[in-house]
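Q: Could you write out the predicted structure for this multi-component system? I'm mainly interested in how the pieces pack against one another.
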Amino acid sequence: MSQVERARRLLAGAGEVMVLTGAGISADSGVPTFRGEGGLWREHRPEELATPRAFARDPRLVWEWYAWRREVVSGCRPNEAHRALARWALRRDAVWIVTQNVDGLHAVAARVAGGSPTDRLIELHGSLFRVRCTGCGERRAHRRPIDATSEATLPRCEACGSLLRPDVVWFGEPLPESVISGAVEVARRADACLVVGTSAVVQPAAGLASTVAQRGGALIEVNPAVTSLTTLAHVSLRTRAAATVPALVASEDAR
Ligand code: NAD
Ligand code: ZN
């Protein structure tokens, strides 16, 4: 039996499944990574811009960077891996997608598949296409273009008038409690975990995957490189996400 077939059977036989994804799943859609080319923007590193301090000091500059990132990602489409996972989650109601990505591509794929963009999707680090009010804390979806030409044109809360910020988790910020507890809950229930395109160095990602493995659940990894989870994995597939994920989640009748 091939390794792909072994992984497919482990997933097909599991009750609940947690799919954990990172930047690698969106690499096949052309979304630039922080570490690769394009990691520098006008001589600023992400670590200098994606912080609460940077926003307090110069909200216009931070919004200009996010406006640029939103524009870049808007030109990217979900690839075969995002799409196959979205269709699978729609077919089987015990599949949860937990992502570290902020590009919103899992939500787009869910919509394309005919499902709800937020159903059984946990965006651990938030989304480039959501905003949060710095005053009243209200969060909402936001896809309109951002005008960052001056501080006066930055987006403001309709309810309280305070400045809006991107609803993403910045360096040095904790994840929202409700997001963490939701993801931990999924990890505690899952009988299998499919990890796609994450180096799993950032917590809580690695911890969520090992929670499933420690409880005796199957751990399957798709990544061209070795990661800290590889030794724990039952099946480790050294390939690109778009090339392999569709075959892993194909149902018996679709094959
Ligand atoms: P990472 O950059 O640490 O790791 C990416 C992993 O993907 C690597 O292990 C790499 O070997 C693998 N990979 C590369 N190409 C692949 C492919 N085609 N198919 C499958 N795997 C592939 O990313 P991370 O683990 O997600 O952590 C990075 C942090 O940066 C996260 O906190 C995330 O929020 C943020 N980030 C998000 C995005 C995004 O939203 N798309 C992009 C860059 C960074
Ligand atoms: Zn407000």
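A: Regarding packing and overall arrangement: The first helix runs from residue 3 to 13.
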